[in-house]
């Protein structure tokens, strides 16, 4: 039983935290921009008859991982209601949150690695 000096944590609100909403919107906007850029790149390769090479496929892979990051960000905001003080979470919600964050981190790292690989392969194509 907690002592009288310790206040019990406030219950977790039912709505998405503002900071998590901003993060989700920013992730969605950047995913949309990345989609446009990858599509323009593929269209330009097709129109100029240069052929789609491995650097383009790495870019498509990075885009797919980017969508996965967006999905896990939305799931994080909706399911585990991320963005509040850690003391407000119960153990089950905190466990779910940490699983989603781990998945998000792995997908983000994969997406960034594929994007960097695409850039390196593009340099190899140029030089």
TrEMBL record:
Family assignment from sequence similarity: Belongs to the SAT4 family.
Stated name of the protein: Rhodopsin domain-containing protein
Subcellular location: Membrane
Domain Rhodopsin residue range list: 40-127
Membrane topology term: Multi-pass membrane protein
Main location: membrane
UniProt keyword annotations, A-Z: Membrane, Transmembrane, Transmembrane helix
Transmembrane parts of this sequence: 20-44, 56-80, 100-123
Family annotation (InterPro entries): Rhodopsin_dom_fungi (IPR049326), SAT4-like (IPR052337)
Organism: Aspergillus lucknowensis
Domain of life: Eukaryota
UniProt keyword Transmembrane helix, yes or no: yes
